[in-house]
Design a protein that fits this description.
Shape: globular
Helix content: over 70%
Strand content: under 5%
Organism: Gordonia soli NBRC 108243
Keywords: Cell membrane, Membrane, Transmembrane, Transmembrane helix
Largest sheet: none
Oligomer: single chain
Pfam families: CbiQ
Structural class: mainly alpha
GO cellular component, one term: plasma membrane
Radius of gyration: 19 Å
InterPro entries: ABC/ECF_trnsptr_transmembrane, ECF_transporter_component
Number of helices: 9
Number of domains: 2
């Protein structure tokens, strides 16, 4: 798997749950992790809970760890920032909360088809249509957002591979500039597609 949280077919109990239940569980799980984890012991308990969720979904540790690969530089930056301004324990806790939240979101995407997720969200926001909200456009925006995440992860991977192939050291100028350019090109492509379909 080369992109973040690509759907993996399966017959696990988590795969069989309705998308709405999983999205609600994700919201509750992230809220609990954010509010309850205050130290290393509670962080360990939360991590054990996330491991249990992945085991219930039948997703192996290699696939789970791949979900964190795009976050490595962010986690390193946050860790260094927290160590400088607080202490190493707080740094571990903050990075742990961030990593566990991403893993919870990823397990939902890994066990839920994008179309099923969008249909659920579309039904949930359908009452807003009575207020004049274009719920179809909201659904399209969500679809583009979901599609853009793995695209940008793949772009980041390709840029990093090109850097290593050229023997360059990682740095803001080497990594950020090509990624930003690729992001702008992707946005232009999305825009042209929407305009061609009369959704400008």
């Amino acid at each position: 798997m080369t992109v973040l949280a690509a759907y993996q077919p399966g017959r696990s109990p988590l795969h069989r749950l309705p998308p709405g239940v999983k999205l609600l569980g994700l919201a509750v799980g992230v809220l609990v992790v954010s509010l309850a984890v205050r130290g290393l012991p509670t962080l360990g308990l939360a991590a054990a809970g996330v491991v249990a969720v992945y085991a219930l979904a039948g997703i192996g540790p290699v696939t789970a760890l791949r979900q964190l690969r795009p976050l490595v530089w962010i986690l390193l930056f946050v860790f260094a920032f927290q160590v400088v301004f607080t202490d190493w324990v707080r740094a571990v806790v903050v990075c742990g909360i961030l990593a566990l939240s991403v893993l919870l979101a990823a397990v939902v995407s890994l066990t839920t088809r994008t179309t099923d997720m969008l249909d659920t969200i579309n039904r949930a926001i359908s009452p807003l249509a009575r207020l004049g909200v274009r719920t179809d456009l909201v659904a399209i925006a969500l679809a583009l957002t979901i599609r853009a995440i793995p695209l940008m992860v793949e772009v980041t991977r390709q840029v990093d591979e090109a850097r290593r192939a050229r023997g360059l050291r990682p740095g803001a100028r080497i990594l950020v500039a090509p990624i930003v350019v690729a992001a702008l090109r992707t946005a232009d492509g999305f825009s042209e597609t929407l305009i061609a379909r009369g959704l400008d």
